Automatic annotation (TrEMBL):
GO terms for cellular component: Cul4-RING E3 ubiquitin ligase complex; cytoplasm. Keywords: Repeat, WD repeat. The keyword Repeat applies. The lineage of its organism: Eukaryota, Viridiplantae, Streptophyta, Embryophyta, Tracheophyta. WD repeats lie at residues 153-184. InterPro entries: DCAF8, WD40/YVTN_repeat-like_dom_sf, WD40_repeat_dom_sf, WD40_rpt. The keyword Repeat applies. Pfam families: WD40 (PF00400). This is Uncharacterized protein.
């Protein structure tokens, strides 16, 4: 099995989730990892939508934690699901012969996640929204509380793969197979600011006291776009 996504719980940095080549999100607590061979690598919890149990050959391409510990998982040939503690397989004393007892997690649908790996993210100051790219070239934004699709933004001529929110401003960045990163702010329709780059495979925001960077990875190279004006791109650095 291969690994596609890792997410750290913002409430407790000892806890993290991993996912990849099957349908299960696995949660680990670094303080409880057993070194004994028979117990090594056992998770403290697992999540999976009930209709994908037992394994159906799907893949999880993205994970994201909210500020309150909710966990998003994006499935390649399915939907995005929002897992909370009560959806856990161990929490529900789960076995595959009684999967109907699992509570159904909220889902977010409409996008296409079948080609390049797609990330997933929370948006809003209190993680009120969910966002993902799509193989149709759009940024999808759903309302978290009911899963309703509320906005689609044209972000790429082919596929949008990554969407990330600014750590302090109401600004998001998106990227995909085109050679630029698009910066979106409230009031933008289809005319975001752009920053030219080679093809991008992932990005995230990083913040210090004076500057905010967007860190982008493509191939074996990292690019840092530095900004000291909220939401605006000031200069580019390549390493």
């Amino acid at each position: 099995m291969y690994l596609c996504a890792i997410a750290v719980d913002p409430r407790n940095h000892s806890c993290f989730a991993v996912a990849g080549g099957d349908e299960y999100v696995r949660l680990y607590d670094a303080r409880k990892i057993e070194m004994e061979r028979s117990k090594f690598g056992l998770p403290v919890e697992q999540f999976c939508p009930q209709h994908l149990v037992p394994e159906k050959g799907d893949v999880i391409t993205g994970l994201a934690y909210s500020q309150t510990g909710e966990l998003l998982a994006s499935y390649r040939n399915d939907s995005i699901y929002l897992f909370e503690r009560e959806h856990g397989l161990y929490f529900n004393d789960f076995d595959e012969f009684h999967s109907e007892k699992l509570p159904v997690p909220r889902s977010f649908k409409g996008h296409l996640n079948m080609q390049v790996l797609k990330g997933v993210s929370f948006l809003g100051p209190n993680c009120e929204y969910v966002s993902s790219g799509s193989d149709c070239g759009h940024v999808f934004i759903w309302r978290k509380k009911d899963g309703e699709l509320i906005r689609m933004l044209k972000g790429d001529t082919q596929s949008v793969n990554c969407v990330e929110q600014h750590p302090h401003e109401i600004v998001i960045a998106s990227c995909g197979t085109n050679t630029d990163i698009k910066i979106w702010a409230p009031g933008d329709s289809e005319n975001p600011s752009t920053a030219p780059l080679d093809e991008v495979c992932s990005l995230f925001y990083s913040h210090t006291a004076c500057f905010t960077w967007i860190v982008i990875f493509f191939g074996d190279t990292a690019c840092h776009i530095e900004s000291n004006v909220p939401g605006m791109l000031a200069s580019q650095y390549y390493t």
